[in-house]
Amino acid sequence: MTAPTPPFRDPHLPFAKRVDDLMSRLTLDEKTAFLHQFAPAVERLGIAAFRTGQEALHGVAWMGPATVFPQAVGLGATWNEDLVHRVGEAVSKEARAMRARDERVGLNVWSPTVNLLRHPLWGRNEEGYSEDPKLTSAIATAYTRGLRGDHPVYWRTAPVLKHWLAHNNETARDTSSSSVRPRVLHEYDLRAFRETVEAGAVAGVMPAYNLVNGRPNHLSPHLGRHLRTWTEEDLLVCSDAGAPSNLVDSEHYFDTHEEATAAALRAGVDSFTDHGTNPSKIVARVRGALEQGLLTEADVDAAVRRQLSVRFRLGEFDPAHDPYVDVRDFDTPEHRALAREAAEQAVVLLKNDGLLPSAPDARVAVVGLLADECKLDWYSGTLIHRSTPLEGLYERFGADRVSFAEGVDRVRLRTSDGTFLHVLPSDDAPAEGLGTEAALDPALLAGRTDLPPLTTDAAGTELALVDWGEGVLTLRAPDGRYLSVAEDGFVRASADQPGGWVVQETFRLEPHGDGHLLRHTGTGRLVQVAADGVKVAAADGDDPDGEVFGLVVAERGEEAVSRAAAEADLVVVVAGNDPHINGRETEDRTTLRLPAHQERLLRAARAANPATVLALVSAYPYAVDVEALPAVLWTAHGGQAAGTALARVLAGDVSPAGRLPQTWYADDADLPALLDYDVIGGRQTYLYFEGTPLFPFGHGLSYTSFGYADLTAEVGEEAVSVSFTVTNTGEVAADEVAQLYVRAESPSVPRPRRALLAHRRLPLAPGASARVSFDVPLSALAFWDVAQGRWRLEPGAYALLVGASSEDVRLSTTVTVDGESAAPRPVRERGLDAADFDEQSGTEIVDRTRTTGDAVTPVAGGTGELVYRACDFGSGTTGVTVSVAGEGTVELALDGGPWTAALSPAAPTAGPYDYVEVDGAFTAGGVHDLRVGLRGSLRLAHVGFTG
After folding, report:
1. In Å, how far are 107, 474, 736, 879 from 755, measured between CA atoms?
2. How confident is residue 734, by pLDDT bands cut at 50, 70 and 90?
3. What is the pLDDT of residues 331-386, one digit of tens each?
4. Which whole number is the average pLDDT over 480-503?
């Protein structure tokens, strides 16, 4: 007799009932095992193993060949949701196709990154879409919808948003805390996540490594308080790699891993990414927490239930009904065309004095360190197809009309005995078991130890030296192999590109006497010449003296660039970054400037030929001197079709229509401190920046011109309806990106100079017009009122600004909206939560307790001040009570007057969370601004008034 089908296998039942049934069949040990990233199979129930996490930021990553699309910041630069939606569809189809042949490929994809690009020196700038929450959420929503698929029940892949929350620094990323005031939290950092989740195609989020307001993100109370209220779907929260252990090991937030694991699970983390594929430590910690009473089985059930919800949506339990089970779309002509279209739409023309587009018969010199490169980043797949700028220009103009100079410095390194470093040809040592062709494949070189190490001889090998800035350089053999250090410590020419979690292909030349020491950055050790070959010093003992090298320069890069530029009609200098060097995950940049080596090449090209265009190919903005250049354009690393796309734009086959997704600042001095997350108080991003940017948010030029006319705006009960007409007034078919901004004309609190409300990318033929209409919810005009602890739409006049960028406004009008007028803070009745300040100086927000709430403390135990506007003390108060922990003094004053109260705990409290109430006299009546001074290492949580 056939056993009845268990309810969890019945596709006709709602997922919730099926999850309930499956949960009832699992033992506690089985459920506990599910909490690790690599959940094991449950063979007795026929349940397969499951892995959370598959990187898919701009193509399926880390799993071998796949279509590689432009970096995320490049997709943000397209300002085109339809395009990004199609990219998401293609990526998810390839994930399905790859999984069909390799079960290691996961369908729970950890993409996209919606961290806002607040600070351009952030090393992971390439992973985000924009500094603006509205644009970020629009692009992220499009991508997640593409990843999810359009079936009403089953999902093609299950996207997880990264990284919750307020994460913009790699420096001390696992121990630094982002101080985020309530207005910034709600109006800026939460907003990009919220609008994307509310759109309905998000399966979960990943907390970031950093702390927010003194509390690790993996314990964020906002996961429950906000995130899980935005949707009726069960959201899966996956930890970042190693972060659960950080709670004890680096952050020292808990004394034991059992406490930390329990706290993270109760805060809402459902899947623990820790210790690689080995689940034993996480399982042991959960079991220990259960035995100690730190967790209940209900806590485990809540996490497992959310995991299973995602697995059911992915069709795992219904292969006969899963509409995506047979998807095999991989590297199709459509995907290749889409990669090129995305790369073309990502190109931003920053400046053009008529030099572009080039003449069709132009002789073109393409020069620069990236001129013949198609760089990948940490989250790229392996290229199936490749197009560098040089290859794209060959294809477009013909090889006979294109000249090339890379611009590397060609050097030999002389040892102290007069010999030179020598690289054996790669075909001298094919890998064991590999044929000659395989041995020469660069993709097979990285990390190999069978190749011979460098030696020395009388002639030596001329190496290509590139200084990538900050003293970091690469050295490359004539056949294209990069010098690298393998696990055995020997230096070999054994990498096709710099890369890896720890880059082993970068070095530093350190002046020493009449020569230089060569330090390997991956190990931090000096290079030595030994009898058995060139290697880095051993790890044991003090750093011994390394070899002192003389640097013999055969040719400077600018010499070759000058020769090539002088003979051309158009010079294209391709500059930018290598995504694995000086700005990447784990490493922030330190400056907006181009590396000195590349500035030398740019000056040489410009001096040799005024018809020079700078093409920046980079993961982030630069501050460059554009005054002397007739044309400048930028694109993110554009994936497999980057070179073709750039060549087509230069030739005029495509009119550029990308727009900057973040502000390009003119100088490092314009930037806030990296860890200053107060975009309002620090006047950061285009929303608040009061200086003159190099190029503003939303900027981008075209090969045609556009006219704007007939702006109308009407205020309804729930929305503002805005319409205007855009006309292509030139002679070239092109896209325009029409942008709508708002500015509150007489705000009661600091509001953005202008804020993006809506945008649309429009293809227009010459002479064609399009009517653009937006219905903007009135809620989009609201701000977070810290006095009321909620959103408030302020009545009054709002300027609506329409144009081609945040600064290029073509049309404007003013509308008046009804709303809720400001009211004084009812401090007599409610008191003040310390973090709900209007202004501050010298303070930071910290955790009130380990689980919830905020407090405020002076930075580094110094002095700070908080200002609370329009506090209503009613008919009068005679006393004040402050809730404080630590040691120090709280002072109070009205308006601009002197301090009239000073309160201190009688003795330092036992710990930072041991609050005491301190009373004092304080007389006030009516409405006043309240100033609160903080001195010492104390935490202020609340101020109350009596009398």
Report:
1. 36, 42, 19, 42
2. very high
3. 999 999 999 999 999 999 999 999 999 999 999 999 999 999 999 999 999 999 99
4. 95
Exposure string over 161-194, b if 16+ CB within 10 A, otherwise e: bbbbbbbbbbeebbeebbbbbbbbbbbbbbbbbb
311 vs 37, 39, 48, 60, 861, CA distance in Å? 13, 12, 11, 19, 48
Give CA–CA dist 62/379, Å, rounded.
Answer: 7
Residues 6+ apart with CB under 8 A from 755: 132, 134, 687, 741, 742, 743
pLDDT in tens, 798-809: 999 999 999 999
Residue range 167-196: mean pLDDT, rounded: 98
Would you list the domain boundaries of the chain? 16-313, 352-407+557-662, 416-546, 697-817, 827-946
Q: What is the mean pLDDT of the chain?
A: 96
**Distances 762 to 133, 318, 337, 352, 737 between C-alpha atoms, Å:** 22, 41, 20, 21, 6
Q: Kindly state the tokens that stand for 86.
A: 């199609």
Instruction: Check whether 148 has a pLDDT greater than 50.
Output: yes
Query: What is the pLDDT, as a whole number, of residue 697?
Result: 98
- CA 787 to chain centroid: 32
What's the average model confidence in pLDDT over 93-120?
Answer: 97
DSSP 454: P
Residues 58 and 379 sit within 8 Å (Cβ to Cβ)? yes
Distance of CA 141 to the CA centre of its chain: 16
416-546 matches 352-407+557-662 in CATH topology: no
- Cβ proximity of 376 and 579 under 8 Å: yes
End-to-end CA distance of the chain: 81
pLDDT score recorded for residue 575: 98
Q: Is the pTM of this model over 0.90?
A: yes
Which backbone phi and psi does 415 adopt, to 5 degrees?
-85, 175
- Cα separations in angstroms, 655 against 39, 330, 415, 762: 49, 29, 53, 13
Cα atoms in the 13 Å half-sphere on the side-chain side of 437: 0
CATH for 697-817, options being 1.10.10.10, 3.40.30.10, 2.40.40.20, 2.60.40.10: 2.60.40.10
